[in-house]
Write a structure and sequence with these properties.
This protein is α/β, with parallel strands linked by helices. The strands form three sheets. It has an eight-stranded mixed β-sheet. Strands 1-5-6 form a three-stranded antiparallel β-sheet. A two-stranded antiparallel ribbon has the order 9-10. The relative contact order is 0.18.
């Protein structure tokens, strides 16, 4: 168990005070069309191959693209995630939201329903624990759970994406199930924003009926909208 406030402080100190973010990088997008295990594997390997400095730079560039947007500043309830496996790290966005007094939430694996997640309120200093797959998540407290329908903005991790804002996830369907109501209605909330390295972009992804499209996807290189 650890407290993420310590992680936040170390991340900011290591990547700003040391000047480690000074070098720009760009990685070529994959040109593949299959939604296949081999595609997921290739894209995960590509992002894991980035150096710590490249990872930090990408996350910082995305932070600067998003931190001053109206959708971020006006949102009252925002869902983040804890990065792993080379994902874009939203730590700076989370820290900014906490400082502004916005209500922040993190995903938590549902303890009883397979391949379902819950969103749990996170406050500065709250403890995190590892779920069965080894990733960090907040301690599950029933009084801190929020329905996905009540969120204003959700930052979504992804394995791959295309320029039409189709998303390829890890294959478990957590976000597609959690936000399926978006596809079944005309609801415009919550806004779903995918965060990605540019090297996770593919030429085209096949959009299945159950796939939930992002409102936009922000990479370290540019912003994509449907």
């Amino acid at each position: 168990m650890f407290r993420w406030s310590h992680h936040l402080n170390l991340w900011v100190q290591d990547n700003f005070d040391s000047g480690a973010l000074g070098n720009f990088y760009f990685c070529k997008p994959h040109i593949m069309k299959q939604n296949s295990p081999s595609l997921r594997q290739a894209l995960r390997q590509a992002r894991r191959a980035l150096t710590p400095s490249q990872q930090a730079l990408a996350s910082t560039r995305i932070f600067h693209r998003l931190s001053s947007t109206l959708e971020f500043r006006r949102a009252k309830r925002i869902a983040f995630y804890i990065a792993g496996d080379g994902e874009i790290d939203p730590t700076l966005l989370l820290a900014t939201a906490l400082e502004r007094g916005q209500h922040c939430f993190l995903p938590c694996i549902h303890p009883f329903i397979r391949n379902r997640m819950l969103f749990v309120r996170y406050r500065t200093g709250d403890a995190l624990v590892r779920h069965p797959w080894g990733m960090w998540q907040p301690v599950l407290r029933s009084q801190s759970i929020l329905s996905p329908r009540a969120l204003d903005l959700v930052f979504v991790p992804l394995v791959g994406f295309d320029s039409e804002c189709n998303r390829l996830g890890m294959g478990k369907g957590f976000y597609d199930r959690g936000f399926a109501f978006r596809a079944r209605s005309d609801r415009h909330r919550p806004q779903l924003i995918g965060l990605a390295h540019e090297c996770q972009r593919v030429e085209r992804l096949e959009n299945k009926p159950w796939d939930v499209r992002m409102n936009k996807i922000v990479s370290d290189y540019q912003t994509y909208r449907p």
